[in-house]
Specification:
- By secondary structure, this protein is α/β, with parallel strands linked by helices.
- Helices cover 41% and strands 14% of the residues.
- Strands 1, 2, 3, 4, 5, 6 and 7 form a seven-stranded mixed sheet that branches.
- A hairpin with a 2-residue loop joins strand 3 and strand 4.
- The longest helix is centred in the first third of the chain and has 36 residues.
- It is globular, with a radius of gyration of 24 Å.
- It starts with a helix and ends in a 26-residue tail after the last helix.
């Protein structure tokens, strides 16, 4: 009889400890989510898909960065959020999210920036997104930043193909797209060092001339034909990284306050004859 009582007591203690551990884990998760809601960091679950931690009641501006491998997407985000740059290249192998708060034109925006692994194609519908890019949030993004390497213009073809697929597969009206040329610090620095003097100077001038011509063609295509914003930057030296997100947020802000966004009220300075509300770089797909 005593043995039975001891066994029952042991089982009750085990059940009590299990409930206590479960309660502790729940509290820890709740604290992490509170931290995320304030934009303090990211929640990573090892060995499992990353479940969206943001509450539905937050009106987030969802920004997704896309581009070919090694063009500096992650470096741009880390410079913007943390003012940090790593010389070591580590390919992005899973989704990472960042939650900064941004003020533009006296308007506060809670932004969700998503960094995803390189995708071979943009999902043509929700089924393909669920099957291959679950939890990436590609098709419901508020805006896109398409990044290419200025020192390797071939990487522009990747985002050109992605952009064409995006236009064909989802309604891109009122969806800002910003094209970013990164690694501006590497322009004209890839000239071979085996030659010297006038030969090296001539090769450098020729390489820079070809690069400038290709860049000029890209800028014309993006701004005149795509009607999208365009910014060049260097994530390594934090040059114009702020300008990248300032340009994007101005495009988003113009849409939000043009009557179809979160409020139909005009910006505070519009009635006083301010900037007039014209945004030439707003991305509109006709």
């Amino acid at each position: 009889m005593n043995k039975f009582d001891n066994t029952s007591k042991h089982e009750k203690d085990s059940e009590k400890n299990a409930k206590s551990n479960c309660t502790k884990q729940t509290k820890i998760l709740e604290l992490d989510l509170d931290y995320l809601e304030r934009g303090g960091g990211t929640l990573t679950v090892t060995g499992a898909p990353s479940v969206e931690p943001s509450p539905d009641n937050l009106d987030l501006v969802k920004v997704v960065l896309l581009g070919a491998p090694a063009v500096g997407k992650t470096s741009i985000i880390q410079q913007f959020v943390w003012s940090d740059f790593s010389e070591e290249y580590v390919p992005t192998d899973r989704k990472h999210t960042f939650y900064p708060s941004v003020i533009i034109n006296e308007h506060l925006y809670e932004v969700k920036i998503t960094d995803v692994p390189v995708i071979p194609y943009f999902p043509i519908n929700s089924y393909y997104e669920w099957a291959h890019y679950r939890f990436y949030g590609l098709r419901n993004a508020t805006a896109y930043i398409l990044v290419f390497d200025l020192s390797n213009v071939e990487t522009f073809q990747y985002i050109r193909t992605l952009r064409d697929q995006m236009v064909e597969s989802r309604d891109m009206r009122n969806v800002p797209v910003l094209v970013v040329g990164n690694k501006q610090d590497l322009l004209c620095s890839n000239t071979p060092s085996a030659v010297t003097g006038l030969q090296q100077l001539a090769m450098a001038e020729s390489a820079c001339g070809d690069s400038r011509e290709k860049r000029r063609n890209i800028v014309n295509l993006v701004r005149k034909h795509w009607k999208c914003g365009y910014v060049e930057c260097s994530a390594k030296y934090n040059w114009r990284v702020i300008a990248v997100f300032k340009e994007l947020m101005e495009m988003i802000d113009a849409l939000e306050w043009s009557g179809g966004g979160r409020s139909a009220e005009p910006p505070p300075d519009s009635a006083a004859g301010g900037s007039g509300g014209t945004h030439e770089n707003r991305c509109v797909v006709a």
